Amino acid sequence: MAGIVTTQELNKRLSDFLDLLISNPKGVPFDEVAASLKINKRTLYYDLNKANHWLTDHKLGFITMYDRNLVLVNADPQTLMKQIENTQYYHFTKAERMVLEFFLIALRARVTLPEICTFLSVSRNTVLNDISGLREELAEFSISLNSSVKRGYFFEGNESVIRKFMTRSVQSLSSKNLRNRLNEIIQVSLFELTENDLDFFELSRCVIRQYEKDIDCEIAKEDVDSECILILISWIRAIKGFVYQYNIEEQQTLFNTPHYKSIALSLFKLSYQNLIVPDNEIYYIAPLFLGTKTSDIFTEAEENKYIESLAHNLVRSFEQVALITFTDRERLENRLKYHIKPLYYRLKYGLESSNVLVEQIKSLYRLIYNFTERAIRQIPGKDLEVNSESEIASLCIHFASQLNEKRLVLNQVKDKDKILIVGNADTSITLLLQDQLDKLLGRTFEYETAPASQIKEWMAKDYAMVISPNQIRGLPKLKNMVFAGPIINTEEQKKIIKKVEGLGLLPQYSFLLEQIFDKIKVYSGIDLKDETLYLELYKLMSHQKINENLPVNSVSLSEKIQNGEYWITDHTLTLSELLSLGCAGLQNGAGYQRLMSRLEKLFKHDKQKVIQVHPDAVLIHVPMQGDPFAEVDMSIVWTKERFTFPNGSSGHLIIFFSTVDNYSHWVALDNLYTFIESNPDFINSLPIHRKDLSACQT
């Protein structure tokens, strides 16, 4: 960098400006100063701001304007002259000039080449060279820098991208000189646009102070300075007609937050200063206080693609963790995509959803919840850092719904009657209701959804039943409507069963049960009319599962380790030799050759699930669907030399885990994960029991 960095730029024109005021202690008319320095009024206004910054930094007084006269106040002429003589000129680097040129063009109504030269006190060729570099940098973000005789220099591009680029530039300001010059551009731009000589920076600080009071927080000083600049940038762009448009999901995320409401109220009060800020701008300003990742410059299309990738990665991760394969993966990803988008914005802005059904969901879907939580942790990087039980529970519902849809496919009837659920499709509550109804009614019905605003009386005849999770104002009263949920209690379950039976859509088991209970009471004196017993017996009579608990398999990692049931080898193993050991320990060696062939084929085609379950332990999935000897089982190999798999997973302890379908291994698998998570040092205490390796035939 050429020159010596001072606290504020002071060039020859500013020196002449100060000399003029020192020589005229009673003041000089504004127009006379401009004429003397051979500059226009706009440039003089810039110089006035620059001079005051310099004077303030050196505690040498300040310049005020009284009755159109510029007057130097609280200044010692001799001290001031000496400081001017000893001050060396500050020269901005090319990178710093490009930042200032960018903001000049973005915030000024019209900027020409000569005006940029005057503002920066540099030559025409220097500015042209800067503009060429700036144009190349902006092109990487699909922002065009154009010029015309009428408009001067101007930008063309997506406003959200331009704003994000501006935000990133403000947050990276390292020089106080640079920040002060930017402040001058902002102050002058607002003066030109509003014709109001207010202290706009103080106005923005008022917004921030009110926010701190409303939210009960304190914003760091360095952040306050940046946020003041960003608020004012927003005002300028909005006044010029460049309004930031947030998509509907972001607006819905932000609208009900106290952060949004505080900013909205403060900006409304500014309307009394004739400073009108469009409502949409609140959606740009509010996230500035929420720690938004503003350096991420995404177009809407790029953002949608990113969210699609999150949904895809989450589904893949769940499959990996739960050792399952979704047959309709695309449908699940699409469903998750619409849930993840608002979730992404909540994470982006540091907000959290509230789900009052967390404990019920964790109870109903304990295993699926656990797998969902682990799947989130397994996603590479920090793209989906979800630690909230509320958020995990909401994601869990989507997986539970998809899995339960496929579980009893053979029991489905061809001609189903329809049940209408009041709500929006693919929301957690709707999916939760549908899943509970499936369990209660035995998958006899098809389900459709519609928002309350679209429910009409004539629709009743098209559905066996209409279920609403709550009583909504304006919802028509339908004869076949039942209010239930979102967690359907025993009384509501009984009501639904009787309603369906009354329509002749299910056998009248409930009537039979009541007769049985009455007979038992007559002959034994025992009253068995317990709601829970009633429902369990009903499900039993209608050939439904009493509950969705999966079979508990006896296979246990802790037991196998404690009993020394694992292979130990000192040899350096090939992948084929390792697979041979692992397969030999499954199903007591039955189907060994088939398992070996299957695993080798999966590895060859890069489809084998290999999971790093511990820094020193790896799990290998052994799918056995359709195998006559299939059962959930576990085989363990300990290699004294750390083994590394093609996907990068590595460890000494290799766990081979066989499955027979998408469900029956869940309990054993969850127990395995839980054991490892709760005993991180278990490998260090392995008992040494060497098995006979000759049992493994390769």
Polypeptide structure, described:
- The chain has six domains: 12-86, Orthogonal Bundle (Arc Repressor Mutant, subunit A), CATH 1.10.10.10; 93-157, Winged helix-like DNA-binding domain superfamily/Winged helix DNA-binding domain (Arc Repressor Mutant, subunit A, Orthogonal Bundle); 161-297; 300-407, Orthogonal Bundle (PTS-regulatory domain, PRD); 409-541, 3-Layer(aba) Sandwich (Rossmann fold), CATH 3.40.50; 557-695, 3-Layer(aba) Sandwich (Mannitol-specific EII, Chain A).
- It starts with 11 loop residues before the first helix and ends in a 20-residue tail after the last helix.
- The chain has a five-stranded mixed β-sheet with strand order 10-13-14-12-11. A four-stranded parallel β-sheet has the order 7-6-8-9, with helices on one face.
- Helices cover 51% and strands 11% of the residues.
- The protein is an alpha/beta fold and 698 residues long.
- Strand 2 and strand 3 form a beta hairpin.
- The longest helix is centred in the middle third of the chain and has 23 residues, at 300-322.
